[in-house]
Structure formats: C-alpha cells, structure tokens
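Table S2 (text version). Query chain:
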Amino acid sequence: MASIIDFKIPKAIARALGLPTSDARKQQRKVLKKLLKKARFTEFGQKYNFDQVLLSKNVEKSFQQSVPIHDYNKIYNDWWARTLDGVPDITWPGKIEYFALSSGTSEAASKYIPVTKDLLRSNTINYIRQLISVFSYQEANKKALRKSFLMIGGTTDLQKSDIGWYAGDLSGILAKKRPFWFQTFYKPGGRIAALKDWNEKLKEIVEHAREWDIGYIVGVPAWCQMCMEMIIEKYKVNNIHEIWPNFGVFVHGGVSFQPYKKSFEKLLGKPIVYIENYLSSEGFIGYKMKEHALGMQLITNNNIFFEFVPFDSNNFDADGNVKPDAEALLIDEVEYGKDYAILLNTNAGSWRYLIGDTIRFLNVEKCEVVITGRTKHFLSLVGEHLSVDNMNCAIEKANNHFNISIPEYTVTGFPYKNYFAHKWYIATDDNVDSAELLKFIDDTLKAINDDYATERTSALSDIFIEILPEEKFLKFMELRGKLGSQNKFPRVMKGNMLENWDKFLATGKI
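Corresponding structure-token output:
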C-alpha cells in the first residue's frame, strides 16, 4: 500500500516548509508586502493606492489607514459580485475559477468566497507542513500515517456556471484539486467523493469500509462520528478499530471538539491522537503544531496577513456587527487571554475581511490560539456575555457528569415577564433528567462567567430547556440543504434562523 510518507518532497517545496519563527511581526510584514505587490494593479489595489502604501515608512499602519474593514456583505456587494460575472483583476489578479460556498450559519444564506490558484497552492503547502508535524508525535501514530486516509467532505461534483467558474464546498474543491500523489491512498476515492447526496455518500463509504486500511480521518466531528456509528452498526462490531485497526489520527476543525469528544471516544477501541486545524473558506489559518500544544498556531509566513479586533462593545454592536471605526491590532500587539475577531488579507483577494470567528491567544509568543465562537453567535441580552466557548465548556462538563452524549445543541434568548430568558435545545438520545441537566448547565455557566452569574440574579430571570432526539437536529439541517460536509449547526439561534427553527419544531417544515 502506498502511503504519504513514501512521497519524496521536492527540494523547492521542502525549503518552503519552514515553520514560523518567533518573529511573527517580521514575517507578517513580509507577507503583507508580498500581497500588496501582487495586487497593486487590481481595481482594489488601484482604489486604495497599494503603491503608495508600499512606499510608506510603516506599511502595516498605512495599509490599515487606507483600506476599510469589510464584512462579507460589504466586500461582496462592492467587489466580489463582479468576479461572478467573469470580470478579472478585481481584488486579485486574473479571473476567479472557483468559489467556496460557505455553510451559511450567519449573514447571507450562501456566501461565494473566491478561491484562487495561489490560495490552493498555499493550502497544499500548509497541509504538508501539518502532516510533517505529526511525525513528532508518539510512535504509534507514525504507523497510522503509512495507511490510507479518509476525507469525509463535500462533493467534488461542483456547480458549473455558464461562464466557466465552479462553486461548491471548500472540502470538495480541495479534494478535486488534490495533488496526483494523493490518489493512491485517498479514500473514499473519486467516484464516491463526487456524490452529491450526503446519505448516499455515507452509505457507499459504509459499504466499502472493510476494504480499506484507514490510518487517519479528516473531517468535521459530527459527520465523522455519524459515519463511524453507521459502520459499527453495519458490521455488528464493538468499535471502529475492529474495522480499521490502524486508525490512529483524527484531523478535525470547523467547530469545537469538546461537545463531541466523549461520544466520539465511545466508538474507539484504543486511544488516538486528535489534531485540530483551522481551515476556513478564506484560507488555512493555523493548526496544532505540537502534540501537547495549548492551541493551534497561526501560520504567519504563508500568504495570510492577520489583524485582530478586540471583541468588545467598543468595536462591535449588540448584534455582532463590526463598527466602521473599530480598532485593529497587529500580531505583536495582542494580549494573552483576550478575545479577538480576526481580519484576513489573503492571496484570494480578501482584504481586511472579517471572517466572523473569535479567537483567544493562549500563548502570545508562539501565536497559539483557540476558537472561542462567532461574532454573531453569542448571547448578551442584558450584559451576560455568554460566548460559544462558555457554552461548549458547560456541555462538555455535562457530558462527563451525567455520562451522556450531547452531539448538538443551540441556545436562544428572548424577553420574558418584563425581563429576559434563555432557552437551551439539547440533542441527546440518552436518558437524563431535564431539570437536573438544566441546573447543572446553569451552575457551570455561573462558575465560569461572572457576568452571567450577576445577570442571573437580576435581568436574566429564567432559563429553559428542551431535550430533543439527535435526529431532529439532523432533519433540520437536511431541510435547509445543509446536511453533511463542513456544515455546522448554529450554536445560537437568532433572526430568520430562529423563525425557521420554531416553525420546524411546530410543523416539521421550514
């Protein structure tokens, strides 16, 4: 069986695989200059005077002063929309051949994110970097890397426009554009990967599972867990290692793994290594570079220039929208333990682009971060400042305390009896007393969030809970056309999404 470690990396690529050094600011300045030089003749570069920015004494600050912050709606309406008409040289040189369709958990129902050849090349280098980093892990996992890998992602059968560009899940684009040397050990293979129907794709993977020697799996936790559960049920085995004895590495990203870990590990016959990466439609942002690292390390030397907006009321309104005069910090200006929203500047033509994630620095010197939530997925009706990070922590502790599995959940807030209230919707197929579970979650949040504890004695008068079977959550995603792949269930329900959720629970339709 061929394996990825048998592949000889060309010297030119090998030289490009150096990991970030401690001088992240110097690396970031070099990246910004490279991006500005490449894009200076685009319409965006001409409008915002990239040539003049490059000549300034402080390139970073001059760039920030010249270019406004963009959320998706602003950059799409002002710039990216014309790339869908085939107009070249808008925010990046050339025509855009691929567009990643986002999971649509906020803002527009479907976001079209430009994916350029330059971006794909950068992503490939980062994948190789991540793979090489795994060889520093314990010996057992090196054996896993000699086996096939299973990528559970979106369809590679992309939508083709009348003018020639393609659109689909980023995972599908990456699978379609995978290097030739991946072919021999990549599963589920081209035919199955091209299937659009998620249920049919899972069925095919299950049918062929015994034929493969899987060493590592890549994908979003919820869908990988579902796949393994189906395999275990199909072949009447006790755990997934009875089918794939060499399975040793799980590469995951997109959502926090905390709520899934307990139920995930019930499917295993022996310990495995978990590797978190930070891959968004806009770029490969970071990954866990060391086995016992506190968080994921930002990739500061490969075509992404980062800025960090403190996630507070000075920079964001009550709905999570960034303010026009928001303060944006550079990589050497951030502080330990504080939450920031990320702005990306990339070789796909994203400029000061708010991707919507919030992160926290666990190690400033090493640029190690954890994802704490989304700018629009938080609850602060009365100043409780309840983040997704807080929610994930409470769910993880509840899983352990009650010995149950909660694979999905969502929370909403609303006016109640002249005050306000939260309601939790919990997915579990295990038996648990709802009142006890609610009290445990509430007490946990009080212990980890002082603002929440304070407001629970005043304006946040009540909290409620509704326990639902996991199938309900999956059906809602299916009806929205978001079943499978990289799609994530929203942790906080607001606006139209909440209306659809309420309608679905009442009628089974949206």
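Notes on Table S2: Residues 388-507 form a domain with the GMP Synthetase; Chain A, domain 3 fold (CATH 3.30.300). The chain has a mean pLDDT of 87.
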